[in-house]
Specification:
heterodimer; A: about 75% helix; B: mainly alpha; about 75% helix; rod-shaped
Amino acid sequence: MVKRDRKWRWFHQMGSPRWFYEITGGWLPWLIPLALSLLAVGLFWGLFLAPPDARQGQSYRIIFVHVPASFLALLGYYVVATAGAVGLIWRIKMCFIVMKAAAPIGAALTLIALFTGAVWGKPTWGTYWVWDARITSMLILLFLYLGVMTLQRAFVSKDMSFKAGAILALVGTVNIPIIYKSVDWWYTLHQPATLKLTSSPSMHTDMLQPLLLVICGFYAFYLMVLILFARLEILRYEKSSNWVKTLVAEGNDS
Amino acid sequence: MRMQFDSLCDALLMDGHGFYVWLAVGTSLFIMMAMVIIPMWFHKRFINNLKMHSSNVIESQPQDEAE
């Protein structure tokens, strides 16, 4: 019995907003400089040191923000949908908080992906926007994020808001494979994926290295912003609890 | 690996693609900065509000230390 308790302790701790708030408070002082320096080095390398593309010239440099933002926009949807599913099944308060924190971050990253894609489209395809499968399914992703955000604030009952948001997030998961496969299934202007898990990348090493560095930077940035939003959300939910009152009284609000 | 541009002006122009590259990069960085500043600002404001509220409460009634 004792052994079983120990095994599951982390699971219960993860579900505790107070534990999450305290542990992540210690992560931020190194996570913030890590994320910012990875982004700074990767972007400088990509924008100034990487060689120009043989066909697209200098405009291809938009890839160094477009691809990482698109990656994390999709990853962010997994975070929202998983937190929603786990929260619906096990009713963990922390899942509600993470889901609420992750939705606006995903929406912002999707907006970056769409905007940089449109700006990249003009010199490359001659148009800012086409209603093709990849771009339309990314626009649907943005609307899904916005829909989840709206539902999370739509009901007086917090429990009801969470359930509604989680169900929309789970239904919207259908869109994810469509986004991934859209460049293969339909004829489209959008180029096929540059990076794939299953095959070697169709990109020169001199361009690939800075791109991977910026992607690592975006992962760290995502984690950092998720923690920032989640901690704010925790304070809002726990404001009448004793530990928040003590925290405010002692001034350890970092 | 070497610098691809001879001058700052070259780096800004990027063979005529500068407008698109810097518009994309600038907007992305602006949105990302907002993603960091907004939660930090709200966090600070929330703590300050709680602080003001709790000091009002302490003046009117004794604080309970039960936990």
